[in-house]
Input
Amino acid sequence: MKTLIKNIDILTMDEKLGQIQGGCILIEDDEIVFAGSEADLGEGADYDKIEDGRGMLAIPGLVNTHTHTAMSLFRGYANDLPLMKWLEELIWPAEDRLEEADAYWLSLLAIAEMIRGGVTAFADMYMFMEQTAQAVLDSGVRGVLARGLQGPDGKSHNRLEENRILWENWHGEGDDRIQVMVGPHAVYTCGPSYLEEVGDLARKLGTGIHIHLSETRQEVDNCIKEYGKSPVRHLYDLGLLDGHILAAHCVHLSSEDLDILRDKDVRIAHCPASNLKLGSGIAPVREMLDRGITVSLGTDGAASNNNLSIIKEMALAALISKGAEEDATLVPASIALEMATSYGARALGLEDTIGSLSPGKKADIVLVDTHKPHYQPRGDWATHLVYSGHSGDVDSVWVNGRKLMEKKELLTIDLDRIYSEVENIYNKVMGTGNG
Ligand SMILES: [Zn+2]
Output
């Protein structure tokens, strides 16, 4: 099956192709086979279907490299608190009342929100991840999933085993849309011996590790008190940074930490909205980019954001670095857009698969409706999208060549069903206890 999307402007995020005015994209099955001008496509090109994209801007599917989809239940719950108080007093007790089957609907709610905002791939770390995997499979989106791990305690070996089984059941499923990593929560919830077991499992499975790292000053101070070194150095000494590491936050870093992250090619999920909302601080994005570290964008869960918009994170990533460093040249729109696309793909280890609209890559494509006042006058699409855009501008979305949204209508997800299921779960989890 070949589909031609024509009459579109294109931000390819491909170095060679750049920005294309009035071009077209040809999709064959799950792959992009051409992006460029119609003249270059040639008259002999054949296709089964034409989509007229007039008034639309095509961009690669956006990548959300750190979230907890099932935490969509806690949107609007426990606001305006610091991280540890928020986790210990409100989020963790409420999570104890969640049941496994709930996670399917909560994940679908988050996935629906992400697709509507042009996010086609995300990295998740949480419990009940089999349910999230099923939601990824059913919705058609792309997910890199990890079972959140804490220990040692009475259940920590079960959690490791669940992560292993998750990998066995789901890694490569959905035509490779689903990948599985190992998900140690953080250095303050995982002891050194447990982290070593986590590292062993990741090596055995040949997969990456997704972890929260140096999120708050308190995390760093406590780690220094307990182990005499920073969380980054701690992981380094445990041999945990040797493979593919996706580290969320990385707000409080010394220059030694930054050098370690560069030397070990650790990929960062920068989560500006969550860091601001929880009062955690502002990550040293300039120092990371100057060292050539891969910095991508994550929303974190809906409880600490409160939405899952990568378009919003792009604007924040650009704006807060400028303000914090008193330097307007920092994180220009073009780099914010790289963070949300090509760097995001690299953070997930999917740089050969997604992240740009290049021939040979999977057809994860987003059409943004630019026929709106805030995109006029038509001009530099990167700055328009980053500084003026919002999630509601997304019109159509393809993942792996399959259309998941058309003219703002989700094709694989029944929103009314999700809303009613989520309301039942909300009443069950929040209606009792002290929530
Ligand atoms: Zn998180």
User: Anything to note?
Assistant: The chain is about 40% helix and 25% strand. The chain has a mean pLDDT of 96. The radius of gyration is 21 Å.
